[in-house]
Design goal:
Largest sheet: 14 strands, antiparallel, barrel
Radius of gyration: 27 Å
Number of helices: 8
Helix content: 10-25%
Distance between the termini: 77 Å
Strand order of the largest sheet: 1-2-3-6-7-9-10-13-14-17-18-19-20-22
Number of strands: 22
Shape: elongated
Order of helices and strands: HHHEEEHHEEEEEHEEEHHEEEEEEEEEEE
Structural class: mainly beta
Length: 519
């Protein structure tokens, strides 16, 4: 039998975790259709190099160069959860759940521009450096239902004292006692996240000689995010389908007193210094780029509603229902501790605290090697390293005793992200180029770093497409790529008899079209 005191603490600690973060470790690197069709552009020389190889752009011919790109992306996030207490869901009495979130970005724009004059190349780039769409879970998340399932267990623990308010169902086994005569639960839940990180960069490359060029630039990033979700209308279900709303126990005068709601906007800005170098020799080209860490503070504006302030009413309401004083005294420390834990977890989103959250974009190192055995064929390989562990993504909060404590998600990672890519393009004739490529993304994930509100999993992407030379000064790029995501499984030991498991994965498709213009 599970200790009632520990269950109460678990219930309210978990309930506070509703706050969502739709973000992740991913920095958008698909900022030009040339990448989508080849997947490896770090060592290429073209207008897309304004992002991938800015130093190499200095080797392009003199004049103005512009690239306009539009992409459409579809993504599904899937989490399979298993938790024994899910069995007491009146509408789905099974321990296993599948939660799916759908994200759709109809238009993801990006623009690259360069003006080459003499040995100089002056460049600008606009793109979504992170985020780029919305993701919603129509049925909420496993962590949300886990809150309700734990509350359901609490209701069963108190069944002897709540019988006058709600008769137990003789066909349901009470998980707290192991005897027949218990309660099921019902609830409503929803989660939606939106995240856009707009990046505008400017810089200049200088061609030192016919073989070597260097680049320096600066990117400004503006982040705008919104997170909305709720767990509401939680109720115990007894005999003949009769319901007892949890709000009756929390605050009988407030029907929303047990609801947990979030509706928060986050905004912030930061700057990214960028350095690059490119070296050509014979049929080979070598390049490197380093983007420094972007220090980003996100300011909360919105509403966070949790039952924290209502917890003080529980004791009186339970006493009125006939719960013995000794039971109330046993759960009182757990309720007080729960208040502190809830305050910690909502601090990241609570505008009343006038809090700024760190949401740094990690530093990025890219390396590329290109080889052209014949004029019509170009083969590239590339490498990316994201210094995730040194980027701060967390916040400070004030404990009940007034001391400060730090929460930083990135410190839970094993290491930074590693990416490897390879691609080739071949000129069928002067008008048509075909290409294909592959990229492997490997995150340094730990079980502690995984959460259903915001997760990434390692993957392999495959892209293909074509470039059509419409005229001497205009080319069309068309591409499609698909990402094959791996699975990441986690197990949390709730008690000696109880585990909470999760299996995370995604599915992703991107189609893009772009126009390159020289003038």
């Amino acid at each position: 039998m599970i200790n009632l005191k520990n269950v109460c603490l678990s219930v309210f600690m978990t309930a506070s975790a509703i706050a969502a973060n739709a973000g992740g470790l991913l920095t958008n690197t698909n900022q030009n259709i040339a990448f989508n069709r080849m997947m490896s552009r770090e060592a290429s020389i073209g207008i897309d190099g304004v992002y991938y190889n800015p130093a190499g752009v200095a080797f392009m011919k003199e004049g103005h160069h512009l690239s306009i790109n539009l992409q459409t992306a579809w993504q599904t996030r899937t989490i399979d959860n298993s938790y024994a207490f899910f069995n007491y869901n009146a509408n789905d009495p099974s321990a296993d759940r599948t939660f799916k979130g759908k994200a759709f970005a109809p238009v993801i724009p990006s623009f690259q521009y360069a003006y080459n004059k003499g040995k100089w190349s002056f460049q600008a780039n606009f793109a979504l450096t992170g985020g780029g769409g919305k993701c919603k879970f129509d049925d909420g998340l496993g962590s949300f239902e886990r809150v309700v399932a734990n509350i359901g267990f609490l209701g069963n623990s108190l069944a002897p004292y709540l019988g006058g308010m709600l008769p137990t169902n003789p066909n349901i086994a009470n998980p707290a006692t192991g005897q027949m005569g218990g309660y099921a639960y019902t609830y409503e839940s929803f989660m939606r996240g939106r995240q856009y990180y707009y990046g505008l960069s400017a810089g200049a490359a200088y061609r030192i000689n016919d073989n070597l060029s260097v680049f320096a630039g600066l990117r400004g990033v503006y982040a705008t995010c919104n997170y909305y979700g709720y767990v509401k209308n939680i109720a115990f279900v007894g005999a003949n389908g009769a319901k007892l709303p949890l709000s009756t126990i929390v605050d009988s005068n407030d029907p929303e007193s047990s609801d947990i709601k979030l509706n928060t906007d986050q905004n912030g800005y930061g700057f990214t210094p960028i350095l690059g170098i490119d070296y050509k020799v014979g049929k080979w080209n070598f390049s490197a780029k380093y983007e420094f860490k972007t220090h980003l503070c996100l300011v909360n504006q919105g509403t966070v509603i949790t039952p924290v302030t209502k917890l003080n009413n529980i004791g009186a309401n339970l006493a009125a229902a006939g719960v013995p004083v000794q039971v109330l005294q046993a759960i009182a420390p757990s309720i007080n501790q729960a208040k502190e834990n809830i305050n910690e977890l909502i601090a990241e989103y609570d505008p009343d605290q006038n809090h700024k959250d760190a949401g740094d974009i990690p530093a990025l190192l890219t390396l590329g090697v290109g080889y052209s055995p014949i004029d019509a064929l170009r083969i590239n390989v590339g490498f990316h390293w994201f210094d995730d562990k040194e980027a701060t993504s967390g916040y400070n909060w004030t404990k009940a005793d007034g001391s400060k404590e730090r929460v930083d998600r990135h410190k839970m990672l094993k290491r930074g992200t590693l990416e490897y890519n390879a691609g080739a393009e071949y000129d069928i004739n002067k008008a048509v180029t075909v290409s294909a490529g592959w990229q492997s993304t490997n995150y340094g994930l730990s079980e502690e770093s995984m959460e259903d509100k915001s997760f990434v999993v390692s993957s392999n992407s495959v892209g293909l497409g074509t470039k059509i030379q419409l005229s001497d000064k205009m080319a069309l790029n068309v591409a499609y790529f698909h990402t094959f995501y791996k699975h990441k499984k986690t197990t949390e030991k709730v008690s000696e008899q109880l585990n909470y498991t999760a299996d995370y994965t995604r599915n992703n498709d991107v189609f893009g079209i772009g126009l390159d213009i020289d003038f």
